[in-house]
Amino acid sequence: MTTVEETARRRRRGSRRAKNPNGEMPLREHLAELRNRIVKSLLAVALGAVGGFFLYQPLMAALTRPVKEAADAGALAAVSFTTIASPFDMMLKVALFIGVVVSSPIWLYQAWAFVAPGLKRTEKKYAVAFLAAAVPLFLLGVALGWLVMPQAVLFFIGFTPDGFANFPDAQTYIDFLLRLFLAFGVAMLLPVVLVGLNMLGVLPAATILKHWRITVFVIALIAALAAPGGDAITMFYLAAPLFLLFGLAILLCWVNDRRRARTAAKHAVDLEAEIAAGPRPLNEI
């Protein structure tokens, strides 16, 4: 493309933005934008899944290590496949999970980029902050799930009665672990959602504090759901950081509400002063 053509293209783009400063677009273009964002997200997940195939063997060895440790300690335990095609299905599932985790910064960004044109400048700033906090917290939640995983597996195997064997199906076993990781990752995002709603003026800090008992109950419920059977260690690993994050989220919401109240009071004072000053002469307008 020549310099003249590039200059003309930029001018046309600038004219479109001038005519449409709010970033509005017809429904057809809106759907096309959504399709492009989804395609990019799926491509990122697919590329991550390709890398997941290379990590499949070491990852499976790490996931089944607790069962092997229980077997070395004298328990009759092993992860088994019930059909011939199960190992291949398992490889696809694990690789896809790795792709979702590895590509999380990309598909989270695509979700933000789709919503951003309809946001105001301050709302875009909040969206960027949400994205910057959501990605590491989601990965931190997955890491906590990984930390909890050996204790959770050994906890359940310990309930096997004497004289009985515990040979869990690989599909069921891996599904349980993947749900555990995702539960931890999603749970770590909840405080960020609270702060985001507060920044948009939907959820004041006073409302969160007023219903603190519900917050405590929800955290305990999430921790219990992430620890089937009531494993106390798993519940503690998830509940403790969640309580800290929710406390930090409430603090941030309170600070933001105070800032918003000061700004509103200042605008009210300025408005009263302007009204008291009376109308300005036409030559000053």
Question: What layout of secondary structure does this protein have?
Answer:
Elements: H1 3-19, H2 27-72, H3 86-102, H4 104-115, H5 121-157, H6 170-187, H7 190-199, H8 205-210, H9 212-226, H10 232-277
Features:
single chain, mainly alpha, 2 domains, 10 helices, 79% helix, membrane, transmembrane, protein transport
Compact description:
The chain is mainly alpha-helical and 285 residues long.
Describe this structure in words.
This protein is mostly helical. The protein has 2 domains: 160 residues, no CATH class; 87 residues, no CATH class. Helices cover 79% and strands 0% of the residues. The chain contains 10 helices and no strands. Helix 4 runs antiparallel to helix 5, helix 6 packs antiparallel against helix 9 and helix 9 packs antiparallel against helix 10. The two termini are 47 Å apart. About 2% of the residues have low confidence. Keywords: Cell membrane, Membrane, Protein transport, Translocation, Transmembrane, Transmembrane helix, Transport. One of its GO terms (cellular component) is TAT protein transport complex.
